[in-house]
Amino acid sequence: MKSIIYLPGLGQDEQNSLEAYVKRYMASMEKINDNTNKKYSVEYEDLSYGDAHNYNAKRAVISEFLEETGHKKVIEIIGYNYNEELTAHFNNKKIFVQAFLLFSTLSIRFWRLISSVFSFRRTSLSLDKKLQVFFMLIIFSMLTLFGILMIPAIIGVVIELIPKILNAFSEDTFTLRFLGEDSKFIEALKRVSEIIVSMTTIMLVFFPTMHEKLTQMSSKYLCVDHYLSYGKNKLEIIGKLETLISKVDENKESTTLELHSYSFGSIVLLDLIFPYKRVPLKTIQKNVSKIVTIGCPYDFIKQYYPNYFSNRNESDVMKNVIWQNVFCQADVFSSNFRTDNKCLQPKEELKPAQLENLIFDFSIVPTNLFFDVYDIKTLGSVDKIFFIGFRAHGTFWGRSYESVSCIQDLLSYEK
After folding, report:
1. For residue 147, what pLDDT is reported?
2. Nearest-angstrom CA–CA distance, 56 and 290
3. Can you give the C-alpha Rg of the chain in angstroms?
4. Which of 6, 58, 97, 331 is buried most deeply by CB count within 10 Å?
5. Residue 42: which of 57, 55, 54, 30 has the closest Cα?
């Protein structure tokens, strides 16, 4: 029986879940199957792992059925959800604290982000994609500023109560004069507070989920930045994944192990297989036969964190692992591991001199599988303004589990 560990993208979206991936995988198996009498079914169960069995994962077992042979387990897919580990330290903070932390991080990164967007060095991120990222960051900054502006509104409300309290317990005329009703400072703060509260009320009427969306966006950006810049929670995330792989190794029914990932889950996967100045655990070397990255934001991260994947060449022990990478040309985050945005293999159509100077971060060169819903050449300026490049990140599969998906192409490639 083949084992697969699935690493989803960021967030808790239903389309991003293990159940959704399993249903698409099973639907793809049925579509490419030549034997119409063969049927598939799935059963789910909870899986505990770790020395104290304090970690939990969900396991799906796909079985095939034939009248001649009956039921036979063929694939198990285990979901590894790192989202809670990545964002737990940030999600519990108040919205204005989140906004302040996010705004300060954006301020620190501002000049580096600007220089990366308008850099003329060769990169797989086209000017169109860079500009889409730039406009997204501007909108992001405006949303964060709105959250920060909630702070003086709160201060205004608190300070307005202080004179009333002091009137009851104090005769300090200087304090009462400074904080009293006739204070110019208080009057100005009140006006600012009233404007902000009014704006907030209007925004909440037209955008009732604004708080939730700002929290999600803040959480994703800030936690990813801290993961990439400072290694925040990276050791915990990778360590739990190593423990899960050891648990799969204990299963005597498992014959091969594949690691599948989508979006930021691909970065976690690369950190596991190609650790910084280390080699993977013996369990990983022994068991992992193939890795799959879907919409991997390698090029995007390398654009804004240029040294993140440096010093990863020590992982030659993994050189026999098969690496399949699903690439969408229109997707801002998707990578083809080239210095252009062409639908070609990483080393295809390069001159000998270019091949000699090619510096690849990993000991394995991926095989690109191209999956595009539409031709990028047909997109106009209006499409790009409305961030079609970001929306394309969700076109590797449709909302219906029966829709065409990149998983169907992956399984067809195996045959």
Report:
1. 54
2. 24
3. 26
4. 331
5. 30
Give the integer Cα–Cα distance in Å for 263 and 336.
13
Identity at 326, one-letter amino acid code: V
| 398 vs 403: CA distance, rounded Å | 6
Residue 70 backbone class (left: φ over 0; alpha: ψ -120 to 50; beta: rest): left
Domain boundaries, the chain: 2-81+233-414, 101-153+183-226
Contacts of 53 (CB under 8 A, 6+ apart): none
If one compares 336 and 357, the residue with the highest pLDDT of the two is: 336
Looking from the CA of 169 toward its CB, the CA atoms found within 13 Å total 6
Helix (H) or strand (E) holding 198: helix 184-206
| pTM (predicted TM-score) | 0.80
Burial 118-138 (b: 16+ CB within 10 A, else e): eeeeebbbeebbbebbeeebe
Rounded CA-CA distance 4/248 in Å is 9
- Cβ atoms of 47 and 5 within 8 Å: the answer is no
Nearest alpha carbon to residue 99 among 143, 42, 34: 143
- Are 76 and 257 in contact by the 8 Å Cβ rule? The answer is no
The secondary element (H helix, E strand) that includes residue 161 is: helix 150-169
Provide the angle, in degrees to the nearest 10, between the axes of the packed helices 210-230 and 127-148: 120
Whether 160 contacts 197, CB under 8 Å: no
**Confidence band for 176, pLDDT divided at 50, 70 and 90:** very low
Q: Do 354 and 412 contact (CB within 8 A), yes or no? A: no
Contact between residue 332 and residue 133 where contact means Cβ atoms under 8 Å apart: yes
- Identify the H or E element spanning 261: strand 256-262
Q: How far apart are the first and last CA of the chain?
A: 17
* Cβ within 8 Å of residue 79, ≥6 positions away: 5, 6, 8, 17, 18, 21, 57, 58, 59, 60
- Can you tell me the distance from the alpha carbon of 240 to that of 263, in angstroms, rounded to the nearest whole number? 19
Quick one: which of 340, 396, 372 has its CA closest to 127?
A: 340
How far does Cα 243 stand from its chain's mean position? 22
Give one DSSP letter per residue of 166-186, joined into a string: HHHH---HHHHHHHSTT-HHH
Please write the tens of the pLDDT for every residue from 9-43: 987 677 788 999 999 999 999 998 887 788 899 99
Fold designation for 2-81+233-414:
Rossmann fold (3.40.50)
Other Cβ atoms within 10 Å of 408 Cβ, number: 20
